[in-house]
Input
Amino acid sequence: MTGGEVDSGVNNAWAELQRAKKRKPVTGTVVEVVKGGLIVDVGVRAFLPGSWQRRPVS
Output
């Protein structure tokens, strides 16, 4: 994968997140537990603050 393909994928994921936030919750996969929250893969890596978590993560 070239740098341009990566940039295009990130731009597409970001555009989809912008559209999704207006109409529905966004789902993703927890990648890492960090101090204060979670790192979540939603097409791009995102930080989810602990105060926004719906259920506990062990």
